[in-house]
Hints:
heterodimer, A: mainly alpha, B: alpha/beta, Rossmann fold, Arc Repressor Mutant, subunit A, five-stranded parallel β-sheet, 5 strands, elongated
Amino acid sequence: MGADDAPVSFAGDLFLTLAAAGRLVVDPVRADALIADLECTLALLTTRLRLVQIWQQLPEPAVDKLPAEFSQSVVDAVFVDQLAPGHLERAVRELPKYIQALRVARESARPH
Amino acid sequence: MDQVRVALQATDPLSHAGLANYLQTRSDLMLLRNGQRAEADVLVVAAERLTADIVAALRRSATEVGAPVVLVVNEITEAELLTAVECRVVAILPRPAVTAERLVHSVLAAAGGGGVMPPNLVGELLKHIERLQRDVLTPYGLNASGLTPREIDVLRLMADGLDTGEIAGKLCYSERTVKNVIYGVTHRLKLRNRSHAVAYALRSGMI
């Protein structure tokens, strides 16, 4: 493929469509590994999103008022959200589609 | 075995003639004439790039004919790959590397696969998932590495509130060099401005 530096676009619906049509067939071992990775990523993003939402609702947000064990996570989450506004919410909506598509694609690979 | 009926579409006559020649050498393939496209088992589309016109034609074909498509193209980006797959493309051949053997193999696989994507194309799609995860976790590849010692020195002095001239004096660089360093780091990491660069470096624990 050619060089593609643009931010990656979400294609959860396409993956769902391909899997449902039986066009996307993925070896179960590969699919399980990808599903596990996606579930980890989704859990992390969900936590980040929650932190951002809590941060945005604080009347006077200040990192130094947070417990030390949370402050770095909050800074990381807020920083990422500032770099790519809205991307986090979109990712949390889209990743489950990929997970579902891979589950279907994995079943298509099993002998019937 | 029944012949596989192939419709061919190319953006230039030379490519059309060359690909037609490859397809006509095989007795198990039947190259359809213009106007017989609706009867095709497989569609071969050749183009330099996946332009908007080509995508529109592929979408129409996917709706009207529904046959799997073998795409012969110079290069394709990840975004274009997703669009192509959506339009029932099941094989993508790099144009400079097309041989009669590869083309025929892809056409027969497309005809026999019932629209199922071959492993190499699935592999490309799975790369999209891996890249997507990296992208959502670290937008623009930002993490705690990737700055040079010179960049760190400049960012540290920026964080101390020094202006370009003062930084140049401290580090014995020209002002132009300092500006280049700042431009380089903000451009490479896609940071918005100097303050953002300092915030990034502080957050990453680099200064």
